[in-house]
């Protein structure tokens, strides 16, 4: 059994109504593994850079571009060492689209026998499609797909794979998506 379990609520900042996921994760996992879990929970493709900011400290992978001081290693930082119950921090995915996620450590508990961790236990709304242009592009995308007379209606639906229901969070896809990513602690 893992040590303590962190219940996190991750919300994509600026989405209305909000897009969010509730996760249960072991305190011992690294921020790099938390990145994998967030990718699986939201349905992102892990095709872009990302970074965490916790208490004014940036964690990520140095891209070598020299845009200021490099972040601390997310592969060495363990969640239980950098956050505690009540901590709020930020996860940014895709610096171009600038998907900002507010993450709150809602509570810290003992593990429950028979539960597999990590787990995505709740969520609302579908994740915006990758590369749709951030919050503003997502709003334009939703406008286009909701109006059959919109000039981009058909092309946007085709781009999104034929269908897209913004009200439907795909929680059942979490475990299979996580299996496609890196192994989790």
Instruction: Write down the secondary-structure element order.
Output: EEHEEEHEEEHHH
What's the CATH H-level superfamily name of the largest domain? MM3350-like
Spatially, the strands of the biggest sheet line up as 5-4-3-6-7-1-2-8
> What fold name stands as the CATH topology of the largest domain?
Structural Genomics Hypothetical 15.5 Kd Protein In mrcA-pckA Intergenic Region, Chain A
Q: Which range best describes the helical content: under 10%, 10-25%, 25-40%, 40-55%, 55-70% or over 70%?
A: 10-25%
Structural class: alpha+beta
End-to-end separation in angstroms reads 12 Å
Overall mean pLDDT:
94
Unreliable segments (pLDDT under 50, ≥5 consecutive)? none
Bulk shape = globular
Structurally, the number of domains stands at: 2
Overview of the structural elements:
The chain is an alpha+beta fold and 185 residues long. It has two domains: 5-127 and 169-180, Roll (Structural Genomics Hypothetical 15.5 Kd Protein In mrcA-pckA Intergenic Region, Chain A); 128-166, no CATH class. Helices cover 23% and strands 27% of the residues. The chain has helices at 31-42, 79-82, 134-146, 153-159, 174-180, and strands at residues 5-12, 19-26, 50-54, 57-60, 72-73, 88-93, 99-109, 119-124. Strand 1 (5-12) and strand 2 (19-26) form a beta hairpin. Helix 1 (31-42) packs across helix 5 and helix 3 packs across helix 4. It is globular and about 55 Å long. The two termini are 12 Å apart. The mean pLDDT is 94.
């Amino acid at each position: 059994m893992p040590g303590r379990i962190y219940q996190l609520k991750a919300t994509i900042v600026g989405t209305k109504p909000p897009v969010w996921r509730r996760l249960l994760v072991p305190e011992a996992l690294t921020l790099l593994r938390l990145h994998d879990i967030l990718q699986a929970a939201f349905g992102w493709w892990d095709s872009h850079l990302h970074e965490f900011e916790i208490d004014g400290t940036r964690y990520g992978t140095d891209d070598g571009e020299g845009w200021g001081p490099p972040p601390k290693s997310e592969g060495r930082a363990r969640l239980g060492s950098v956050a505690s119950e009540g901590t709020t921090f930020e996860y940014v995915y895709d610096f171009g689209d600038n998907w900002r996620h507010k993450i709150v450590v809602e509570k810290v508990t003992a593990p429950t026998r028979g539960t597999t961790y990590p787990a995505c236990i709740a969520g609302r709304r579908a994740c915006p499609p990758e590369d749709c242009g951030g919050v503003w592009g997502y709003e334009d995308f939703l406008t286009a797909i909701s109006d059959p007379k919109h000039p981009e209606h058909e092309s946007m639906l085709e781009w999104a794979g034929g269908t897209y229901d913004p009200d439907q969070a795909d929680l059942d896809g979490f475990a299979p998506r996580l299996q496609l990513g890196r192994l989790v602690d």
